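Example S7 (structure tokens).
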């Protein structure tokens, strides 16, 4: 589980399933649901994508992480040749107005 930061953004729709890289609150990396180490991330992305550099890659990072750690992971993804890299944020919950 990752506690995502909130952002008011339009939901993205993609014609193909993206790959998801997750960084948990302890800084551990996951590709889809499988834990991976930093050195294995790029080769695993290439293998899972069928070496398709146009495949969208989403990076999810726990909100408690330092920004630099997320940028480091995004750098690993782009160094592997992927150009369609995006961050995932959670849409804020709107509280109902009670009129009081």
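Recovered sequence:
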């Amino acid at each position: 589980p990752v506690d995502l930061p909130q952002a008011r953004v339009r939901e993205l729709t993609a014609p193909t399933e993206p790959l998801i890289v997750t960084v948990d609150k302890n800084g551990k990396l996951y590709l889809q649901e499988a834990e991976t180490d930093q050195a294995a991330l790029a080769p695993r992305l290439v293998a899972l994508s069928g070496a398709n550099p146009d495949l969208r890659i989403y990076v999810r990072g726990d909100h408690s992480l330092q920004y630099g750690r997320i940028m480091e992971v995004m750098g690993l993804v782009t160094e592997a040749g992927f150009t369609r890299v995006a961050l995932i944020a959670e849409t804020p919950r709107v509280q109902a107005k009670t009129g009081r």
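Notes on this example. The chain has two helices and five strands.
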